[in-house]
Amino acid sequence: MEVAIIGGGIVGSTAAYYLSRAGYAVTLFDEGGGQATKAAAGIICPWFTQRRNKPWYFLVSQGAEFYRQLMADLEADGFETDHLFQVTGALLLRNRAKKLERDLQMAQEKVVESPSIGEVLTVAPEDLQAYFPLLESEFGATYVAGGGRADGAAIIQSLHQAMSRFGGRIVKEKARLVRGDNQTVWVGSRRFEVKGFDKILLSNGAWLPEILEPLGYSVAIQPQKGQLFSVYNRAWEGNQWPVVMPDAAIDIIPTASGQLIIGASHEDDQGYDLTLDEGVLAELKEEAATFLPWIKASAIATTRVGTRAFTPDYGVLVGQVPELTNVWAISGLGSSGLTSGPFLGYEWSQLVMSGKWQINPNDFPINAYITPNNL
């Protein structure tokens, strides 16, 4: 069986890795520009969300559990994973005592199905610096031992290396789809001759409308720009501080390399623009200063810009493309893509291999987002 995967972000790269590992002939088309995963340095701690969307929560909670399997599989294949994903704990800053009490209750309810949550504690404001010496806050926090941090770009690099080692092929060009016979689709690119594949996964995020439009589809996916920055101090190298999730629009992510990553923005009106916006970075820094007052005087060390994909109702798009027998699509993961993406990519690989996956199509009605224009 030959498989084509279009989009080498976290979803497509995970699927390509597991299918190549199982001996399938996989071609991954990855132009790479603007990819959300490569710009992501994310927090893996989805269990205490206030979103009430149960299908979405299923994906992110399963995604957090799956990270452990993904790292174990890469290690078994000879790859170092310490820099890819680290369980350092998470501090969830709360501005009300009731929220801290609610977190403890949620932990008791969810730990059975999500054992990776680990120990959950309430931390008083005066004790926060014992966990994170740079942090200043008048609020208490919930400490979640199972929270972690993931480096999107490093994970992608390792997955690409792994799939190539197992015989997978990476075509670093923009793919295009061509209608074949009997409701099938063929794939080609500028230098890759158009050919048929048994199974095709469209995991190209915010560019899904672009690749399906020539086939006569309307796709309810929009781009969202995300920017982040980091500051650096050599004295911070080798730290094992927890990630921090304030009651605010930013996250604070320390890395063992001595960087402190702040972000990311959520810009719905910038289209596919990847230009760095100094004004947005200044706003992020100002917000971070609420918890890290010294950061106002700190020089920015690095910046990243990426494009997320989201649907109008912030639901996830996953399933078989209507009227096509060999094409599936996964998109609309938004800012939770780094958490749920590996699980979704793995599950699609299982669908290809066994005809079964843990995705209930009734929970993810793809027809709500992808519509043939002839209807």
From TrEMBL:
Gene3D superfamilies: D-Amino Acid Oxidase, subunit A, domain 2, FAD/NAD(P)-binding domain. The keyword Phosphoprotein does not apply. Residues 3-346 form the FAD dependent oxidoreductase domain. Keywords: Flavoprotein, Oxidoreductase. It holds the Pfam family DAO. Its cofactor is FAD. InterPro entries: FAD-dep_OxRdtase, FAD/NAD-bd_sf. It comes from the Bacteria. Belongs to the DadA oxidoreductase family. This is FAD-binding oxidoreductase.
